[in-house]
Records
---
Amino acid sequence: MERACVSFATLSISEYARRLASADPTPGGGSASAVAGALGASLVSMVARLTAASPAFATHADRMRIVAERGERLSSAFLASSDEDVAAFDKVSASYKLAKSTDAERTARTSAIQTALIGASDVPMHVVELALETVRLAVELVDVGNQNAISDAGCAALFAQTAARGAALNIRINIKSIKDETRAASYESRLSDMLAQIGILTEVGVVKVERAVLRS
């Protein structure tokens, strides 16, 4: 009952961590992955604002303000997904507890489970989509952002990649139980494509950061 009334996204970091460490299955890895993405997107905003505020990067100021605002929206979307992940898990859990004494009940239960599994796959898929955009912005900042904050841009990419890979684990465990093989294959295809893009972009960005740090 308490979960339905609480937005995990509004909790303090210490309280969220306490609840994450409890025996309650939610919030769990899916929600935490979304929170990691929110941290990455927030770092994108920070680096963009530091860049916009520096006279040395005046030619990029307008673009950096756009990036900063987009980072804020991405962070908010990640945090919303952290709550949506909990709600989706609860629906899956509730569907498995439905009665199955009669053929009608079993049919209804199976349908409810399949619907819930799709919802529980859609939420982390959205997290991966948000992560891909966050990584793209982070790598842009590695290239054109304030070099005094280049390590923060690298961290933003890594947090976003963590969000995506954590979300991917949840997607894959759910689609194993989806009976619609075409839908399950579509999830896997989209997921694999986005993870590949995120992996390449993050690797490129982090290598650039490491080289810049070694030169400094």
---
Amino acid sequence: MRDAFHPKSLLGLLTEVVLIGVSVFLALLANQWSDARQHRERANATLHYFREEIVTNQKAIETRRQYHEALSRDIESFLQSDALKTLQNFYPTVHFHGLEPVQFERTAWDLALANQSLSYLAPKLAYAISRVYTRQQAFQTLENSFLQAVLAPRTFADQDATGLARSMDAYLIDVNIQEPDLLKLYAQLLPQIDAVATPLQ
């Protein structure tokens, strides 16, 4: 039996130090593995949220494409016609039942920013997702600005519909460029998400 006068051998001390070091290393390794697993799970859940939201926005645009294209053609016909440019002539020529702007879903984006889960994605994929949401936001701003500036109650008080028709024509030209561009971005992004996302548990 060892006592204060018979300290442990150097080999015994080294063995204890090694065992303690190995134990700490394994604990750190297990902790890192657990963190990495949580990050993967959070990233995967985030991708599923993004996919669901992007498909929703994609369908929202697709359901409005035909109407926006037809409305643009009708307004051009109205502006080029020889008829008086009055509201009375506007409605029969232009089959107008609102501009039907797209209200983009962005809950998945806001959640990803709040919990920083975007940082768990591959940089190239995170960039592609960010690009889509930036384009959506720019388009949403265009829609909101037009609705606030042009489609006010006083707009329909004037019987001369020339200004209204020209404003709507310019707006729809932009809409009919932006919407197909967004649909292309969705078509490019969804396969990228599907390639890395795994089924949720």
---
Amino acid sequence: MSLTLSNQEPAMLELLDVTGRRVLRRDVGSMGPGPHVVTLGASPRLKSGLYFLRLSQNDRSLNARLAVLR
């Protein structure tokens, strides 16, 4: 997954299942400003299905849908 951070403030990337439970949480603010590529990995906990991805930084958040196919 690719993302762009506008500054070096703390930022968090979260992956939620369709029930709203957090499956993965990763601090990405330490990457600094600019474009980045984040690999979520082939976690055995990630089953096929729909997920929601949320990138939060300061008072802003960006949401996206993600499909995992196995």
---
Amino acid sequence: MADDSPRVISRRDLLRGAAVAGAAVATTASRALAPTEAAPAAEAFQAGAAAPAPARAAYEQLSAAESDLLEGIAARLIPSDESGPGAAEAQAVRYIDRALGGALAGSREAYRAGLEAFDRYSRQSRGRAFLELSPADQDSVLTDVESGAATPPEGGFVDGSAAFFAMVKGHVWQGTFGDPYYGGNANLVGWELIGYPGVRTMVSAEDQRRLERGELRSSRRSAYDDGRFNKAVVRAGGQGDSGHGH
């Protein structure tokens, strides 16, 4: 992340002291590549691009164009840099996609309308799709959206752009720092980023002192690796108990 990018939106230095975000229930969706400029903005966004893309995990709730755009946004909110991997490597968008088929199902329309409005605003205000902009210009678009100043033609944001930004930011945090059982925090990169040592059934006073000194190694375990925790339903209509770990 360049040092001269706008500082209004979330940045890695703000995440260092973050607590692990709560994770929600989940499910999955199909995807392809980002839209091209050949079609009108709304049509291009809905259609996605025909150009070949590297093989990636399939999503079930988000469309091809939606998932690519959301991944681009997440990559700027928690970027990969010299400190280590970020939201992209944590597969935060995979978490969001699963959750939109379960616990976050009520946010599906806000994502559909918001991502389309976001795409229109980027094209109208910067002359290009968000994914085609430089990192600095991407950050400036996100700053507009966060502040509520993004007003794309024909509107589209449910409750305004600031509410959309807050929703996406919160879900990206959950997908990066939540328990990996829910589809995000792949390879525990989020826990490594903030120095969280992983789930432990008991932490002694000495463990706490070692944690504060940075000496306690990560357990690299999900809460659901322990048989004493109940497993929540991960996908709508899927198998598993309805209770959360306790």
